[in-house]
Amino acid sequence: YIFFFFAIFFGITLWFFYGVNDYGVMKLLDFILITVPISILISQIFNRLDIKILLNILFGISLILLFVSLLNIGSLISSRTGVMGGGPIVLSRWLGLGALFVFFYNPVKKYRIFLFPIFIIVALLTGSRGPFYAIVLVMAFHLYLNFRRLFWRSVFTLSVIISLFFVSGMHERFFEIKTVSRVFMNVQTDGYNQSTEGRQILIETSLNQIIEYPLGVGLGNWQQFADKKSFLVSHKPPLNYPHNIFLEIFCELGIVVGLLFIVYIIILSLKSLFYHIKNQNNKLLQLLFYIFAYLLFNAMISGDLSDSRLLFIFMSLLSIKELKNANNL
User: Fold this and answer.
1) Which residue ranges of the chain lie beneath pLDDT 50?
2) How far are the Cα atoms of 106, 111, 121, 239 from residue 102, in angstroms, in the given order?
3) Residue 149 class from Cβ within 10 Å (0-12 exposed, 13-18 middle, 19+ buried)?
4) Residues contacting 50, CB < 8 A, separation 6+
5) Rg (alpha carbons) of the chain, rounded to whole number
6) What one-character DSSP code corresponds to residue 235?
7) How would you classify residue 191: left for phi > 0, otherwise alpha for psi between -120 and 50, otherwise beta?
8) Sequence-distant (≥ 6) Cβ neighbours of residue 71 within 8 angstroms
9) Which of 78, 87, 229, 318 is most enclosed, with most CB atoms within 10 A?
10) Bond prior to 237 in cis (omega within 30° of 0)
11) Residue 287 and residue 95: Cα distance in Å, rounded?
């Protein structure tokens, strides 16, 4: 609540000093009318049944998007595109979310051998790197936390899959697909490409802005006060935000709100991790924690504050006290 209050307070106050634009207004309205009330509602009144209903709805959405993607598989292979009006990054995020559901969610875990690779492959076909690498990080973290129990099993399974993939020659055809090759282009170009260069500029100009305007410049004003504004405006499409939720909050809302957000993330992560390690049988907490980590990794690579609504929802779910004793769904 403290973070929400100061985010709204600074978001409005800073406009009196640095001006306001339509993008900033829409972002504030989205935060006040959608993100904040839903987050508070979840943390205050949700119980296990409510959580189950919400998870079923979210998994249903990801399953529908997977089905529609498979129907439009030709379009995904030929060019970067989304489905049902959404962009490729949004689609890839939902597919990654679906992959986590089938891997960790008890009601559908029995289908993960079949559905998990399909979700991952279709996500690769969107050409979006962030969600794919976020999944890799989450699964690597899961392996680390369960090293003794899963290490040799995981090594054997991955060795078989990778061997079949390369021995069969499938890798050559697979990497010839433009959208798939885009996901791995950093490796193919020794870590340097136009997208990477652009991301470096986003970080540099954001850090410079934090130093010059430590109290923030107001919601939606990041591009206006960036020292490399010409590059951001001429970029296709124009870059209106830092593509990192931490940098966005620090730049637009100031170091006070930024530090509050970091403290919020750290406390929530450590508490959830502690309860997860203490009670390995709490599969619900495990699922929510890994989805939270996945969404946080995504928010650090792409999207703005409005695109992080789902992240705040899962942060609220992890804040529910009853969750500590909910072993299974």
Assistant:
1) 191-192
2) 8, 7, 14, 34
3) exposed
4) 42
5) 21
6) S
7) left
8) none
9) 318
10) yes
11) 16
